Amino acid sequence: MRLTKYEKETIILFNESEDEASIYTYNAGLKTRLANFSRKYPQLCRMKEKNKYGGRIYLIDKSRLSIHLQPPYSEERIETVTRNLQKTEIDYKDK
Asked: Which helix (H) or strand (E) holds 46?
C-alpha cells in the first residue's frame, strides 16, 4: 500500500509542561534535516520511531524548535530583485 501526498502529513506536537516536541513527518527534506541534526546533537534530538510507509517520529528539545513565518515580498522588493537579475544577465552575456 502506498500513501497519497495528502496522507503524508507532518505533525508537530508539544505542550507547555514538557521540554520535548514530537515531530511526525513524511517530508523528505525535513526527515533529512532531523536525521542530520540528531547525528550532530544526539542529546537534543533523536529518532523515536519509523514506520513501513516512510514516516518518522523525532523527539527534539523544544528550545531547538523554531517556527519561522515568512511575510510576502512587497511589490517594490520584487521589482528590485527583478531589475538586479536582469542586470546580472546582461553583465553575464557581455563577458
From this structure: strand 45-50
